[in-house]
Amino acid sequence: MLLSRAQTSRHSKLISLGIKSARFNPRPEIARMSSTVSFIDDLKDKLSFLKARFYFKRGEISVLNSPNEFYDTLKDKILKAQDRIFIASLYIGKTQDELIDCIREALKKNAKLKVHVLVDGLRGARESPSKCSVTLVSRLLEDYQDRVDIRLYRTPACVGWKGSILPRRINEGLGLQHMKIYGFDDEVILSGANLSSDYFTNRQDRYYVFHSKPFSDYYYDLHQLISGLSYKVRLATNEQKFSIFWPNQNLAVEPVHDKVKFIKNASTVLRKFLLKEPQPIISGTSLEEEYPTVVYPVSQFTPLFHKRRDESTEKPTILRLISSISKPSMNWTFTAGYFNMFPDIKKGLIATPSRNANVITASPYANGFFESKGVSGNLPDAYLHLSKKFLKNVKRHGKQANIILREWKRGIVNKPGGWSYHAKGLWIGDTDGGDSRPMLTCIGSSNYTRRAYSLDLESNAVILTKDQELRDKMQQELDCLLEHTKEVTLEDFQSDPHRKVSTGVKIATYLLGKRL
User: Fold this and answer.
1) Is 80 a catalytic residue?
2) CATH number at residue 192
3) 294 in any annotated domain
4) What is the distance between the alpha carbons of residues 165 and 38, in angstroms, rounded to a whole number?
5) Which residues are CB-neighbours of 20 under 8 A, at least 6 positions away?
């Protein structure tokens, strides 16, 4: 296989870091295919409880690797959209005039085009009545009110005294709309990135583009479902230039009037959506050859279910995937920019028999809250404290030679040339047959934290593939992330004074761990 100059350079960099790049390992064909088929068949069995699954031909899934590529792709697909644009994000940056103008141009060009925007009602209106996500997007209503639908999700936990007395930004700790779904006609991008300048320039995330009408329809339906449990935005003459209301056509009663009934209504429609009959299962050698990739959408909607009847699919899926790592030859990489791993996930990963595993987290200098004003400025130290606890746990189980913690750092965030790290996900492969490229990855909004599984709305996808080109792309993505990492050990915490964490931060991390 011929290697580009960039690939050769990256390979040399990874070798210098002590990381083997799977794309450069020998791959005996028969052993490789046997290992791949066995692993994939086992995973398909473990994931058979999931109703939603979609099959993809070669070339129908693309992987983007940089923020500017993500931004350029967004603008290109917005301008080419014919029927629908549907966007779900935590927020849209208040300076994203170019992005909104791009949507306006698409609406102007195509009289059939409809635009659907869903953001979090707390984060998206944080700066109101000053310019915020909502004031920016609501400008589209001035000329295209009949073709633009803007929705604000507000967690039912914000109903009552909590919503009344908690100050802005603090109340966001109650729960958020955290999904990142960017759809255009028959294509959809799943990512962990929001829509603001840093995510388009120097904040590293992940981005997968899916070219499939059934898959796009699924995420459009999901978008519409959560929108039907959210407030609608309309223009107003008040200081903030917009107001919100609860449409009669919504799928549930307004939570401020009857929170219990809202949860009952919401859980009913969500259960119906998550448990509806799937596409027919593709089986047989010829069909599996034509459709070598299967993708399982998974979601976490815990705030919208009764506590003891949570039908969310993400957490059980991730735990099943981890339990499938059953041989020393199986390798995995886990990453989360905000390192507060859900306890069962941490326990499961440490228990795996893998000889080669990596955990990537943000260096304090790549944490978006580095040198932030106020309480949030302590968050990098909180995650540093959790990293040290993780390493102690790994050592306690005798896995320090097999599970390596790596910090991602590319300059210093908020300084010239500095980047922040926001990627999250899981990759699993098997070195049997000499090929350790991933056969599976998880992509989406979740940080795999206690917060993600109790407070926020999350949407992700599990990609399981025999497609050699897609596996190459997944490995290239992983190599790009590993290229900017450095191994961190307990000795580093003992010798580096910058890794000392105050007692106050340790106590606060313990008390507020569920909300990190």
Assistant:
1) no
2) 3.30.870.10
3) no
4) 55
5) 14, 356, 436
Same domain? 199 vs 230 = yes
Residues 491, 377 share a domain: yes
Q: Is the pLDDT of residue 27 over 50?
A: no
* pLDDT > 70? residue 399: yes
Confidence grade of residue 45 (pLDDT, cut at 50, 70, 90): very high
Q: Give dist(CA 312, CA 266) in Å, integer.
A: 12
Band of pLDDT at residue 198, cut at 50, 70 and 90: very high
Structure tokens at 311: 């039908």
Q: Which residue has the tokens 């399982």?
A: 296
427 with 364, same domain: the answer is yes
* 223 labelled catalytic: no
Split into its structural domains, the chain has a count of 2
Closest CA to 351 of 392, 402, 313: 402
Catalytic residue among 77, 94, 178, 388: 178
For 38-61, what is the HEC assignment?
HHHHHHHHHCCCCCCCEEECCCCE
Distance CA 391, CA 499 (A): 14
Query: Is residue 305 situated within a structural domain?
Result: no
Which residues span the domain enclosing 353?
28-47+312-456+463-516
Give the model confidence (pLDDT) of 66-80 as tens digits.
999 999 999 999 999
Residue 240: its pLDDT value, please? Answer: 86
The full DSSP string for 212-236 is -HHHHHHHHHHHHHHHTTSEEEEE-
CB 71 within 8 A of CB 207: no
Would you place residue 51 in the very low, low, confident or very high pLDDT band (cuts 50, 70, 90)? very high
At 170 the three-state DSSP class reads coil
Selected catalytic residue, list 44, 46, 114, 185: 185
What is the mean predicted confidence (pLDDT) over 193-216?
Answer: 98
Active site residue 180: yes
Name the active-site residue from 11, 180, 388, 399. Answer: 180
For 237, the token pair is 């003459």
140 closest CA partner among 242, 238, 225, 221: 242
Answer whether 317's CB lies under 8 Å from 348's CB.
Answer: no
Q: Which residues pair with 463 in a beta bridge?
A: 295, 441
CA–CA dist 115, 162 (Å, integer): 33
